[in-house]
Amino acid sequence: MTISSAVLSRPRRSIRRTILLTGLALVGILTIVERFAPSIVHAKPKHQLKIATIAPDGSTWMNIMHELDDAVQAETGGEVGLKFYPGGIQGDEPIVLRKIATGQLHGGGLTGVGLGTIAPELRVLELPFLFRDESEIAWIHERMDSKFETILHDAGYTLLGWADVGFVYLYSKEPIATKADLNGQKLWLWEGDPLAEEFLSKAGVAPVPLSITDVMTSLQTGLITSVYVSPLACIALQWFTRVGYTTDVPITHAMGAVVVTNEAWEKIPEAHRATVRKLADEYFAKLQAATTKENAQSAQVIADSGVKTVHVSDAEVESLRSIGKDVASALTGKLYPAELLQQVESELGACRAKAGTTGALVR
Amino acid sequence: MKTDYRNPARGATNRVRAFRVLGGLAIGAVLTQVLGCGVTNKVAVSTMVPLLESTVESTFRERDVETVREGIPANLLLLRGFAEEYDGDETLRILAAQSYFSFALGFVEDYEPDRAELLYSEGWRLGRELLERRDWFREAQAEKPVPSRETLEKIEEKDVPLLFWTLANWTRWVSLNLNDPAAVAQLARVELYLGRVIELQPEYYYGLPLAMVASLQSFRPEMLGGKPEASKSNFEEAFRVSGNRMLYFKVLYAEFYCKRVFDEECFVETLQEVIAAPDDLLPELQLWNEVAKDKAAYLLETRDDYF
Questions:
Q1: Fewer CB within 10 A of the terminal residue: chain B, N end or C end?
Q2: CA distance B150 to B154
């Protein structure tokens, strides 16, 4: 709930109406109007960043973004605010990006596919089987965010914060325990995603390209037999009702972020930008933690609903990892430069050396 | 006597009668507690139920929103008490679930969502407890991840009132718990039950099941399975069934459909139409229309939050 909707309350309107109905003198009415007017007509921040997202109002994502907006307004004396358009009411990601280009919106909460449209280099973070647990992702962000922020800035955008989707798993009608099982699938491909296309090609799977909106029906009709998605999204999309199995190894980690145009960002006075930056760091960290927790809860809910978890043996995991390496090589020079991939791999090597492991996949 | 919930207009409308009814309820409650034997219980329940039905009906005919806002909480407790005491009485359970839902939606949810969640939770429980005595419901609830078509087809038209008011509470409870994956997962189940209600009796309560399905279809983004076009069509069917007299459907249309398609003109014009509608459009559900007007004004005042 935003400040304005929290301040406004329906009883207040009823008080006004009751008083009007009882026919009080004009002076009395004016007193009432004057008393409530300042809170009813809530002042719009001088600098308001308009941001669209697919996350529905009432979701943890939106709740934390509303908290961020409240904090930003409070600490900038109401000068700066973040106005979120939830639930995809501004359209899907391609439409949101078009609206940003025409200035109707200032930014968006985007998934990897949307972020890849404006800065393809970032997709290096979504390579299959790249990350093996949350600590590795945190390690890379800590050491390489300034690099990613520069990439985004050069593309015309300022990063407000990472809002990752989380680890992505296979959900299928039949068990998938091996690479051979995967080959036999009619696997959904999010159409227009070059990274997923490369992965499925290297895995030897004939993908079925579909928009997200067609997936549910296609699972019902058998046009596709498996999908890849985070546990939380699997529940939100209700796909868990149409599958029987999930594999216990994530195929990738899906990123997400809230970005605004440099133009809109730089219109905010410098002192306020520092305040927004500080608060964004705090609230996006809270959001990342909440998303990790909700994905874990979702995985449990899906298991409780009868979807069985299929264990992938260590030998098969190695086989799948080799696909990840092939994909990383194939996309070098297409989505990201070799140096960026090398830096990510080098940092991950350092992370694993420090942890004293070669990296155990999240299960 | 079984209430025809599609035609709540029945009996006197004056408040003297309402007070008489409440007095009767109080005496009945005391008698039941003091005597408490089986025969007395039967007599008491046969006396109580029509009185409670009349009370709920006269409440829905009320024109003064404030009277109801202040008066309903005590009556909710009374209704709940009776529903729990006579736990096999279907009419009491329906009245209780309906009253909890209506009060939470009309008076509480917009400004005290946490409290509304508790009220919906109670309304849902009161309905569910009796549904659990029916074979098809137990069977459907045990089926995972969702009930099968075969089981859903066991639901009959006579099941609609209790199932619908239970679902009404359940749906709104889920919508207030979108930060809980376990709650969100229940939506698939709720939508299947609601789909069956619409197959059996779409015109129930002036078409409220249609308006509820339409709200859900617009509530979710298209990317997450929302269907704005189907939503619009279901809203239009609800308007038709209600003869365009149930103003709250228009409020839901503005709140869910017009917002979903990001059409500010649709939003504003629909809500202005609600505010300008005649006061005596639907005397038997006057309260709903008063609440609709109140909410329409609130949504217009806060429209900058959405557009």
A1: N
A2: 7
Each residue of B197-233: pLDDT tens digit? 999 999 999 999 999 999 999 988 888 888 999 999 9
Q: Are strands A188-190 and A157-162 parallel, antiparallel or unpaired?
A: unpaired
A309 phi and psi angles, rounded to 5 deg:
-95, 130
Q: Note whether B95 and B56 are within 8 A (CB).
A: yes
Contact A347, A131 (CB under 8 A): no
Instruction: Please name the residue of chain A whose CA is at the shortest distance from the CA of residue B108.
Output: A10
Distance from CA of B177 to the nearest CA of A (A): 7
Six-digit token string for B282: 């639907």
How many C-beta atoms lie closer than 10 Å to residue A62's C-beta?
20
Closest residue in chain A to residue B70, using alpha carbons only: A11
- For the purposes of burial, counting CB atoms within 10 Å of the CB of A195, is it exposed (0-12), middle (13-18) or buried (19 or more)? buried
Q: Is residue A148 within 8 Å of residue A336, measured between CB atoms?
A: no
pLDDT (average), residues B5-20: 39
- pLDDT value at residue B29: 52
Q: Do residues A40 and A12 lie in contact, with contact meaning Cβ atoms separated by under 8 Å?
A: yes
Of B111, B146, B178, the CB nearest to A59: B178
Give the pLDDT of residue A33.
Answer: 33
B positions 144-203 inside 8 Å of A (CB): 144-146, 175-176, 178-182, 184-185, 187-188
ipTM (interface predicted TM): 0.82
